[in-house]
Every structure is written in structure tokens, then in C-alpha cells.
């Protein structure tokens, strides 16, 4: 019984036979495969049509997009036609010079013509942003090559070319040096010249001084003021022949002072500008401060016997055989730094000018004050005579930059690596000055430099020697320099400065002033004054 049941179930465990798919299904699959293959081929052809062009370089390939074509790289590429044109053009220019020197004007003209064609083609390539093709460059390259070979056949060989080009380079270098010197001289001349507007103001103020005796009486009364010798007040001195510049110095100082009534200014000018300077400070009020004006001719002690500088200037004047020459030399004396201005050198006679004072701040006439300067008087100078801002950065503006250390009298007494400093805003301890007898040191160095072998011109070199070992460094923010020549001074440094200095030829009252800094100075000019308006300052 059991055996028969197993024989009946056996067919359930047998492997089923495979069933074949109908033929129509195979036809349908084949059609789909053919259609898919056709779509793939069509799509592949469309991609190839829009693929960017490929340039083969050896075994490497790189894609070039017209949108990012760089003509500068084309010029630098050693395989480009633009580079070949540029190289041939440079060589052709050299042969143009040689051909002209040898009188071969026809060859020079032909070379020049092809150079212009090369320049035109390169310009077109740069403007259109495309590479120069062989068809465009071949005619010019071929013609230039023929002309260069022709020049070489004319014995314009490479050695001749090198010698000629070297002589031209030396000549150009000499011309460049001469141009630099000439530019410096013209710049100095422009800086020294008095603009017609300031001259107009000076003339009108002088006229008012001569026509109004009350002004002269008031000037004499001011000289008897006890404020001029009161050491409890804050004293400043300015030596200048520029009325407007001096006015800006005074106005900017009192405008930033917490107590302007406690400020006293001692102004010294020359005989020509004395009336105008006196009138200006008598008819204008500067917030209650006191302004005293002196003429340099009043200082009888400043004579040839006491000062070698005055002696040299006097000798220069007496050499003139005519009055016109004497007048001309007198103008040189006051305006040309080459012959030294006495006004510039009055800073070395401050104790004689102000014999009753103990401390004074010296200000140049090309500065603008932006902070209260009365804090300077409380700075401890530690027995030194002068407080100044140092100007040395690394090796720049050290003593060896100003003085001739090949002279034993300098090298034996002075350290060439001593840090330099700046005139223009300085605090002087006149008690320490008199104790050190600094004016005598000034006279000593002036005598030693009679032949101008120690330094050339200016007041800073002799100042560095006079106050050597007697200078107290001040914080840099007290005095920021360079507004008369440096166009890249940091705005933050200017804003933080107590005093900004227009040292250099680009003075703020001149047309050649740096426009970026001019407004700092102009904000302290009284454009509402009738004389200023009439002279068209605004």
C-alpha cells in the first residue's frame, strides 16, 4: 500500500520541461533594440556637433573656449604667430635705428611700414579676442624676415647692433637723469614761488597797514602785553613770509585747543611782509589768543659778527656791483634754499628771540594742527633740548643719509646709524637749551661746513648735528609727515595725527598740491574775509 502511494506522488518531484516564448515577442524585442540603437547614434552625433574645438599638442589635448581667450598668453606662447610677430617687430625696430644711422632711409622706411602692419594686426587680434592665424601673419612675417636679412647683408651684424643699442641706451639714461634733475629744479621753483592770489592778499594787507595808523599803534601796544612773557601760558613760534600759511597754522591750532585764550603765538617775518602779517592778525580774531609779529630786521644781535650764516649772506650781497643785483640777491637770500633763508634758520636762535620763556613749541608754516597741542608742554624731555618725532624705518632716514661721513670731523663724533628726526613740530626746553649752549654748537657746525663738504643745504642736517644727543623721541602720532609728496598715506594715520606736515614741493596753497590732502588745509582758510574773496581764493 505504501509503495503504490509513493509511485503515485513521484511525478510531483519531476523537473518541469522549459516553455518556449512565442515568436511575436521576439519580434517586438528586436524592434525595440533597433530603435534604441538609432536614438543612441543620433544623440551621439548631436554632442559631437556642439563639442568645443580641440587643439592637439604632442600627446596632450586641451579644450579652448573662445569666451576665455587670453591674448597675453598668446603673446607669451612660443608657438603662436603673435609671438613671432612681436619678436620680429622688436628686432626690426633695432634695425630701423641702425639703418637711419647709416643713411639707408629706404630700408628704414620699409621696416617701419612692416612694423606698423604688425602693430595693426596685433591690435586687431587683441580687440577681437582671437588668435592670429597663419594666413594673416605669414605675409608680414615673410616680408619682415626678408628686410632683416637685407639689413644683415648691409653688415648690420649683431655686434654692431649691440654697440649701437648700448650707446643709445646710455644716451637715453643720461637724458632721463637730466630730466629728473630738471623736474626737481622746476618743482623746487614752483614750491618757492608765491601764487598771485597770496601776493594779491599781501598787497592789499600792506596797503591797509600803510593807510591806517591805528593798526600800527595797536601793534605797538600788543608788544607791551605781559602775556608775551608769561610762562604759565602756552607759547608757539612760527617763522614765515607767507601770510595765508601762517594764518592756517594759527587758526588750526586755536580751533583744536581746549583753552585757546591761553595760547600765545610769536610770529617772525621779513621786512617785505611785516605790514601785511601784522595787519592780518590785528583785524582778525583767533578765539582770543595772542599773536605777536616781529620783523627779522629788529634782531640787531643777528649780525655778521655773531653768525657765520649772516656773514656769508652779507658777503654775497656786497659782491654785487649794482643795486639791481643786490636786490636780486636779497630776494635769493629770503626765498632760495640753495643760498639758505634766514627765516628758516631762526629756529636755532629761539632763546635769543624769546629770552624770557622756558618752553615753546615750534611750528613750520606748512603744517595743520588737528589736536590740542597744549599737552606737549607736559611731556618730560629728561633734560634734553628738543622733542621730535623720529623718521627712521630700518635703514632709511638715519644720520648717514644726511651727512658726509667720509669727513673725519663727522665720522669721529657721530654714529652714522643714529635715527633721524623731523623739524616742523617740535617742543623746545629753553632752559636746557641755554645750559647746553646749543646755539654755539650750531655756529660751530656752520663754520665747519663753510665749504659745504659736511652737508649740502637745508636746516635738518645742521639740526641733527646741533641737537645730537639732546633729542627726546615723541610718539609718532604727534607729527605725521609727507603730505607734500606722498600720495599714499594711510587715512587712519592722518586722522590720528596731532599735526600733519606738507613737507615737500606740493604745498597746499599751490596748484600742484595733492588734491587728496588739500581740503585738510583749506578748511582753516577764512574764505569769507573780503580781501580773500577779492583775491579769488574760493
TrEMBL record:
Its main location: Golgi. The chain crosses the membrane at residues 21-42. It is an enzyme of class 2 (transferase). One of its GO terms (cellular component) is Golgi membrane. InterPro entries: GAUT, Glyco_trans_8, Nucleotide-diphossugar_trans. GO terms for molecular function: polygalacturonate 4-alpha-galacturonosyltransferase activity. Pathway: Glycan metabolism; pectin biosynthesis. SUPFAM superfamilies: Nucleotide-diphospho-sugar transferases. The keyword Manganese does not apply. This is Hexosyltransferase. The gene is LOC123092075.
Amino acid at each position: 500500500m505504501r509503495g503504490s502511494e509513493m509511485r503515485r506522488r513521484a511525478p510531483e518531484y519531476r523537473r518541469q520541461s522549459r516553455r518556449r516564448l512565442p515568436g511575436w515577442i521576439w519580434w517586438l524585442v528586436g524592434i525595440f533594440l533597433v530603435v534604441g540603437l538609432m536614438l543612441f547614434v543620433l544623440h551621439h552625433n548631436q554632442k559631437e556637433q556642439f563639442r568645443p574645438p580641440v587643439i592637439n599638442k604632442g600627446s596632450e589635448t586641451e579644450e579652448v573656449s573662445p569666451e576665455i581667450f587670453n591674448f597675453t598668453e598668446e603673446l607669451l606662447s612660443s608657438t603662436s604667430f603673435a609671438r613671432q610677430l612681436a619678436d620680429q617687430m622688436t628686432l626690426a625696430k633695432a634695425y630701423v635705428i641702425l639703418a637711419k644711422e647709416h643713411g639707408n632711409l629706404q630700408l628704414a622706411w620699409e621696416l617701419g611700414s612692416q612694423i606698423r602692419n604688425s602693430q595693426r594686426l596685433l591690435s586687431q587680434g587683441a580687440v577681437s579676442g582671437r588668435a592670429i592665424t597663419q594666413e594673416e601673419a605669414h605675409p608680414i612675417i615673410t616680408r619682415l624676415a626678408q628686410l632683416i636679412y637685407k639689413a644683415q647683408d648691409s653688415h648690420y651684424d649683431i655686434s654692431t647692433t649691440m654697440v649701437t643699442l648700448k650707446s643709445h641706451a646710455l644716451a637715453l639714461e643720461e637724458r632721463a637723469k637730466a630730466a629728473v634733475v630738471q623736474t626737481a629744479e622746476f618743482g623746487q621753483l614752483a614750491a618757492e614761488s608765491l601764487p598771485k592770489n597770496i601776493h594779491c592778499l599781501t598787497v592789499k594787507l600792506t596797503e591797509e597797514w600803510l593807510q591806517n595808523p591805528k593798526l600800527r599803534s595797536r601793534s605797538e601796544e600788543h608788544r607791551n602785553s605781559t602775556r608775551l612773557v608769561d610762562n604759565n601760558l602756552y607759547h608757539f613760534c612760527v617763522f614765515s613770509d607767507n601770510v595765508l600759511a601762517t594764518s592756517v597754522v594759527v587758526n588750526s591750532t586755536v580751533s583744536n585747543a581746549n583753552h585757546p585764550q591761553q595760547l600765545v603765538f610769536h610770529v617772525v617775518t621779513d621786512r617785505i611782509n611785516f605790514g601785511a602779517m601784522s595787519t592780518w592778525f590785528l583785524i582778525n580774531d583767533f578765539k582770543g589768543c595772542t599773536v605777536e609779529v616781529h620783523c627779522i630786521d629788529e634782531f640787531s644781535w643777528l649780525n655778521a659778527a655773531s653768525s657765520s650764516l649772516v656773514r656769508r649772506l652779507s658777503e654775497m650781497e656786497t659782491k654785487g656791483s649794482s643795486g639791481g643785483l643786490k636786490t636780486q640777491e636779497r630776494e635769493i637770500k629770503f626765498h632760495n634754499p640753495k643760498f639758505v633763508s634766514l627765516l628758516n634758520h631762526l629756529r636755532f636762535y629761539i632763546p635769543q628771540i624769546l629770552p624770557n620763556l622756558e618752553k615753546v613749541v615750534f611750528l613750520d608754516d606748512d603744517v595743520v594742527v588737528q589736536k590740542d597741542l597744549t599737552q606737549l608742554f607736559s611731556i618730560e624731555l629728561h633734560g634734553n633740548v628738543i622733542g621730535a618725532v623720529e623718521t627712521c624705518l630700518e635703514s632709511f632716514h638715519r644720520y648717514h643719509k644726511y651727512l658726509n661721513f667720509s669727513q673725519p670731523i663727522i665720522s669721529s663724533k657721530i654714529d652714522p646709524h643714529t635715527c633721524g628726526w623731523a623739524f616742523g613740530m617740535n617742543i623746545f626746553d629753553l632752559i636746557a637749551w641755554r645750559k647746553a649752549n646749543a646755539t654755539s654748537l650750531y655756529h660751530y657746525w656752520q663754520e665747519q661746513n663753510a665749504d659745504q663738504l659736511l652737508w649740502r643745504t637745508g636746516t635738518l642736517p645742521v639740526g641733527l648735528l646741533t641737537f645730537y644727543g639732546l633729542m627726546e623721541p615723541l610718539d609718532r602720532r604727534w607729527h605725521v609727515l609727507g603730505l607734500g609728496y606722498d600720495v599714499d598715506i594711510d587715512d587712519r594715520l592722518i586722522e590720528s595725527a596731532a599735526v600733519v606736515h606738507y613737507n615737500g614741493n606740493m604745498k597746499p596753497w599751490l596748484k600742484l598740491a595733492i588734491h587728496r590732502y588739500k581740503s585738510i588745509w583749506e578748511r582753516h582758510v577764512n574764505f569769507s574775509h573780503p580781501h580773500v574773496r577779492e583775491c579769488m581764493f574760493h
